[in-house]
Fold this sequence. Notes:
Elements: H1 10-17, H2 20-23, H3 26-63, H4 67-73
Amino acid sequence: MAKKKQKPSVKKQKDEKLSLGDLLNDDIVSKLKNTQQQLKEEAQKKQEEELERQREERRQREKNKSFEELFNESNLKWSDYK
């Protein structure tokens, strides 16, 4: 004989449709979203500070190059001016 298929209960359907946001208080959800936004802003600020620090280091290295380093980087050839 054929087995009867059980219909899913109404309670299971309601549980499946609920999301985590529905289960948490609105206050908690708003606090979590604020915290997430703050963390994103902090990460972006750190990244910008790191880029600024790298730019400053490059500028200082360029400023403090010796004559030999500058000479080796130049494309001029003494034989062209002979």
